Amino acid sequence: MQYIKGRGAQLNTHNKFLQHSYEIRDDFLEYCRLENEKSETNKTSYLETHPKTILNKVTSTDIGLAYSMNPYQGCEHGCIYCYARNTHEYWGFSAGLDFERKILYKANAPELLEKKLRSKHWKPENIMFSGNTDCYQPIEQKLEITRKMLQVLLKLKHPCSIITKNALILRDLDLLKSMSKLHLVHVSISITSLSEDTRRTLEPRTTTIKKRLKTVEILAQNNIPVNVMMAPIIPSINNHEILSLVKKVSELGAKSVGYTVVRLNGAIGKIFTNWVQKAYPDRAQKILHQIEDCHGGALNDSRFGKRMRGEGKIAEQIALQFRLAKKKYLSNATLPPLDYTIFDKYQSNQTTLF
Q1: CB burial readout 5-15, b (16+ within 10 A) else e
Q2: Maximal CA-CA distance, the chain
Q3: Helix, strand, or coil (residue 68)
Q4: Non-local CB neighbours of 64 within 8 Å, separated by 6+ positions
Q5: Distance between CA atoms of 291 and 269, rounded to whole angstroms?
Q6: Residues with Cβ < 8 Å from 79, sequence gap 6 or more?
Q7: Which mean pLDDT values do the consecutive 10-residue runs of the chain (354 residues) have?
Q8: Which phi and psi angles does 271 have, rounded to 5°?
Q9: 3-state secondary structure labels for all residues of 248-260
């Protein structure tokens, strides 16, 4: 199969929830070639969904969050390693190319959020944007669902955290500045590499590294607390960049850094293996074996406490490098706490007259 430019996954894996599957036969591909037709389109499509709730309770002990909310399912960024790919199977799609090309959006998310926060029994807790897929992926430029949700949070003075790898977040700088003054927001920018070549390979439709670094700088200059996530670290691809990346983002004003070790859960193991053999044919087996070294001989480890950090010699080396980097470049930097005391669910829907 020819490498599909502009996409992370290079195939559609079978959806484990579906009884039947289809495959494109060689004779059909040959027919398309002779007739100068395409066997399938690489164009992204969008489908509106109508959920009844927008907040998801986080039960993982690896993540210090209470709730997450995702205005979009699927993600056009196409990051090959994304753990969220498997969730697309619940919608009847593949975790592979479908995850990048079939984007579901929740237009009623702002209304659902406000209804939940105004409910009788709601008490303010940590809510994370993009616990699953990026809330600032390309379609947000048009739909502005994330922006409308931020407006709800600001109006009711409810804290939130955001993680994204898209510079589009700067569009909402006005809201973020207002929230930051009230200690209502933390922002995490995901930066996996300082190399643009690596970025294009791992994350084909994301904001460039240069723009992401500039985003960190602009947020910091506007007193918005910024964390940088080097997630995931993939042995033999970006693990050599830990010190240089932490040094760079600390100079730009980041208050903290974090990381995860890549884990290829569910269908992602097959998707990643297929991809790495095409993207890095010279070291594909080395990369796969070193990932296995971090997870007890497998490509994935689902155990809480182990799955995001890994174990073994390579995982230990990564952890030591991060401790050293944080001690050297961010020893005195911390994120200010969020303020949960000013939440006001009874804030009027009416705009002020003055």
Answers
A1: eebbbbbbbbb
A2: 70
A3: strand
A4: 126
A5: 11
A6: 8, 165, 202, 203, 206
A7: 81 79 47 50 91 90 80 96 94 95 97 97 94 95 98 98 97 98 98 97 96 98 98 96 98 97 94 96 97 93 79 96 96 93 83 38
A8: -65, -45
A9: HHHHCCCCEEEEE
